[in-house]
Amino acid sequence: MIDALTAASGSMANDIARLSTISQNLTNATTPAYKREIVVGQPFQQAMDNIAATQPSAIDQRHGTLRFTGNPLDMALEGDGFFEVQTESGMAYTRQGDFRVDASGRLVTQAGQLVQGLGGPLQWPSGSPTVDRDGRILDGEKLVGQLKLVSFARPSELTRAGNGLFHATEVPTALTDGATKVRQSHLEASNVSTASEMVKLVETMRHFEATQKVVQGVDEMMERALRKLGEF
Fold this sequence. Notes:
Blueprint: H1 2-27, E1 37-39, H2 44-49, E2 57-59, E3 66-68, E4 75-78, E5 82-87, E6 90-94, E7 100-101, E8 107-108, E9 114-117, E10 120-121, E11 130-131, E12 136-139, E13 142-146, E14 149-151, E15 159-162, E16 165-167, E17 173-174, E18 181-184, E19 186-188, H3 194-230
Antiparallel strand pairs: 1-2, 3-19, 4-18, 5-6, 5-9, 5-14, 7-8, 9-10, 11-12, 12-13, 14-17, 15-16
Helix pairs in contact: 1-3
């Protein structure tokens, strides 16, 4: 009976963790370039051996669709790759290209981190500069900078750093082959499907309720057994 309760409580803990993941995905369904969190399945025996452990999760790095915004400071990436930005704790990487210009005329993220070019932080020229598909910033016909684009051999191993940023344990590779294109005045949408997440939410709630009934049933059986023993 105790084993059944342990298994049920572990299952309920996993359901709670899964609900937290689904809630996070739904909350960020409209966040530019947000990558949804997914719960990683485990073999049955491994799950039973670690019944008290919460199921691991991973980041779904599939790209979202691109949408036109009309804002020249918005940048989206077509293909694999990330923008590189400088933070207080070192370099970080993002596909969330809703940039702005700070008081010093530098291109920064919404949180103020410096967007990197091939030569360091990018200075955004006044006027109406354009960004071509290779990430080159042009003031008229004059080249004034170029966005630094990088890729990773194992993007699934990137870890979230908040504000749409990721930290990496491996050294990034600079993208110079033109396979990844920059789309100015566009943003990448989140890869969260609201309908799919809502289905998962309902399924998880029903599973939690069913497991809760199992716990109640086992508890009632133990109570009856104890009463019977008390009669002897």
